[in-house]
Each structure stands twice: as C-alpha cells, then as structure tokens.
Amino acid sequence: MNKVTILKALERLGAQAGLDGIRLEVSIYGGAAFLLAYNSREGTKDIDAIFHPREAGERLVAQVARELDLPDDWLNSDVSQFISPKVEAKRRLAEIEALTGLIVHVPSAEYLLAMKALACRRPIGGYRGDVDDLSFLIKKMEIRSLEPIQEAIDRFYPDDVLLPHHRALLQSLIEQNHE
Fold this sequence. Notes:
Distance between the termini: 33 Å
Shape: elongated
Radius of gyration: 17 Å
Largest sheet: 5 strands, mixed
Helix content: 40-55%
Order of helices and strands: HEHEHEEHEHHHH
Structural class: alpha/beta
C-alpha cells in the first residue's frame, strides 16, 4: 500500500465512522508509521494499528476493505502482541486527522527504534525486513553507538535484550550511517 492508497482508505474509514456516530482512534505502528509520520518509505504491506473502540473499528475496517477492494487485513491489530507494556505519549498526526476525521497517533522515534531493534528482521527476497527503517532511525536520531538503542529498549521493553546477531547488524548500520 502506498501513501495515496492508505490515505484514501483511512479517509473512507473516518467517513464511515462519522456516519455511524463513532469517534474512532487509530494508533499506527510499523511501516505505515514510517510512511505517514516521516515519509521515509514508499509503501507497506498493511497498516499495523490498535484502534478504539475495537469492535466498531474491526467492523468498519472490514466494510472499507470490501468497498475499496483491499485485503481483509489492510488495517489489523496483529501488532498488539509487540506493544510495550510501558505507557508512552504518542504524537498525533493533525494533518491526517483533518483529512480523515479519525484520531491518529504514532509512537515516538525512540519507541519505534526499540520495537524495530528487537525484531531486527533481515531482508529476505523482496521483503526488506527492518533494515531500512532502522537505518533511517539511526540517521534521524544521530545514533553513534549501541548504547542509545539499548536505552530505548530498556525504557519500553525492560525485560528484553538485544541478541548478539542483532547487535552486530545494528552496529553495521551505525557504521554505514556515520562513515
């Protein structure tokens, strides 16, 4: 899904929520957060999000999928299993809220860094994994060592640690961004 498709789908979701008298809140994670908040990528497979109210959101998401001929999971809450146990203030995307009528949040760059660093998925075939997003965050946040990455993990995922092969990948991304 590219930005145009995502915005069209979110706009339709907001319109349907409005018609039903529902104030729908959507917290967006993963690739769609990078695309919408930072314009750091061209597209994403789907929108990883948590929405409230959940039941109404699921019903409206299914309706928009049918209307716009999108995959059933175009917006899904599968990411909920990876959400930090720590509460974090999120950033609202006012421009997208104005366009869609939804309440739209994205996590901070530090939160996304912790989440992506723990996953640290490598590219396989046409799948880009987390490397591009991690490289973007390392550059944006001017990270020059593994310490700030570990600090972000400690802040949001205090029971998790970086695996040795993830540390090696992250160190190589740091070095590539600061040559």
